[in-house]
Amino acid sequence: MILRIDMTSDIPIYQQIRNEIVFGVAKGHMKAGDLLPTVRQLAADIGVNPMTVNKAYALLREEGIIVIDRRHGAQISNRGMNGNAFDANFDQQVELLISEARMKGASKQDIQKHISDIIDRVYE
C-alpha cells in the first residue's frame, strides 16, 4: 500500500493517512476484506509515531471504513460502502467548498467543470 503523505502540509498526518485510504478504496485499489498494515508497520514505513496511525485507524473504524479484529488486524470493511453517500455531512462539506470557490471568484461553470474533472479522476 502506497500512501502519499506530505510532512509539510497543514493537514494533520493522521487525516492524510485516513484520506489516502479512502482514496484507495474509492479508486478500487483496496477492496472489502483487504488487510491493512499493522499500526507499527505503517508507522515505520512512513516514519511517523504509531499513535498517529492509531488515530487514523480509529477514525476510519468510527466511519465504518475499516474493521479491526485482534486476530486479523485492520481490514477494509464493506459496511461503509453501503451507507447513505449523500447525508447532511456530505452536503454541508460540498456546499462549503463551493462557497469558498465562489468567494474566490470562480463562476458556476468553472466549479462545475472542475468538479466534473475531479469525478473523472476518481472513476478512472
From TrEMBL:
Domain HTH gntR-type: 11-79
Keyword annotations of the record: DNA-binding, Transcription, Transcription regulation
Entry keyword annotation includes DNA-binding: yes
MF (Gene Ontology): DNA binding; DNA-binding transcription factor activity
Cited InterPro entries: Tscrpt_reg_HTH_GntR, WH-like_DNA-bd_sf, WH_DNA-bd_sf
Superkingdom of source: Bacteria
Claim: Glycoprotein is one of the keywords in the record: no
PANTHER family assigned: GNTR-FAMILY TRANSCRIPTIONAL REGULATOR (PTHR38445:SF12), HTH-TYPE TRANSCRIPTIONAL REPRESSOR YTRA (PTHR38445)
The protein, known as: Regulatory protein GntR HTH
